[in-house]
Amino acid sequence: MPSDQTTLASDGAPDESLLPPRNACGVALCGTCTPASACRLGVLSERLEDDGSAVFSVVCPADQEGGPGVAHGGWTASVLDECLGHLPLLRGTTTVTAELTVSYVKPVSVGAPLEVRAWLDKQEGSRWFLRGELALLPGGAPLARASGIWVARDRSHFTRHQRWMAEQHEQQTNGEA
Fold first, then answer.
1. Got the DSSP string for 124-155?
2. Taking a C-beta distance cutoff of 8 angstroms, is the pair 152, 4 a contact?
3. Looking at residue 40, what is its pLDDT?
4. In the predicted model, is pLDDT for residue 23 greater than 90?
5. Distance (Å, rounded) from C-alpha 150 to C-alpha 94?
6. pLDDT above 70 coverage of the chain, percent
7. What distances in angstroms separate CA 93 from CA 58, 62, 72, 96, one per listed residue?
């Protein structure tokens, strides 16, 4: 598989050195979460199921409260984006979000045990079409659903972005539009 679709070592296995670090519970961490060794969005654990879906244990942190005792809608979208994006990571592929649609079903209680399930609808080249659901535990009442498209990227994606941002800054500094 080409490097823009999967991060592979020379033996064809996922190249762990190019994937994000994980905390002691196995949760992949972004750059902001790595120093604390914990996901700031409240993802506590993640696992890949035998059927290829992924399951995440989540609790909305108190600092993400929107209304009294309930999560901010932005947190709900963020945690669904995070968890759905981790499904390809659990399969050895780094992706970035291209599109995300969230349907809010019920308010999400801050501090309550939650579960996100994510699954792959289809894959077309480097594009992963994913769906997921955020549910209240223990009963599994649905609170939000998401669907979207994630695009596989290798590390050079981020280097290209940094170069583009430097060009934008230079144009702004030189008064170019």
1. ETTEEEEEEEEEETTTTEEEEEEEEEEEE--T
2. yes
3. 86
4. no
5. 9
6. 84
7. 22, 31, 29, 10
Alpha-carbon distance of 29 to 146, in angstroms, equals: 21
Looking at the whole model, is its pTM more than 0.85? no
Grouping H, G, I as helix, E, B as strand and the rest as coil, residue 67 is coil
Which residue, 27, 15, 144, is CA-closest to 86? Answer: 27
Q: 171 pLDDT exceeds 90? A: no
- Alpha-carbon Rg of the chain, whole angstroms? 18
Q: Where are the beta strands (DSSP E) in the chain?
A: 43-48, 54-59, 95-104, 113-124, 127-136, 141-152
